[in-house]
Predict the 3D structure of the following.
Amino acid sequence: MVNQNITKQLIQYNKSVFENAYTMITMLQDYATNLSSTLISQIPWFPEDAKKAIQETSDLFKEARSNYKMAVDDGFLKLQDMSFSNFDDMFRNKDN
């Protein structure tokens, strides 16, 4: 039972670490995107096609980032839903 509680706490801790790191990376990427968009919009000779391509690339990164988060969240849900009924048996000495 102790092992089960420790495992649940470890899963919760790792989920919390991931959430915090993901939030920080998201903020940094969004800031960099906004900064580059502002810079590019102030350059009069920058081609519109290139601006559009940069925006599409930014949108693709955001979509990929969102898909990655959904996959990791799904993995954490599967870990939390796992049955640990035989968990203690895995750590028992087979000689006993």
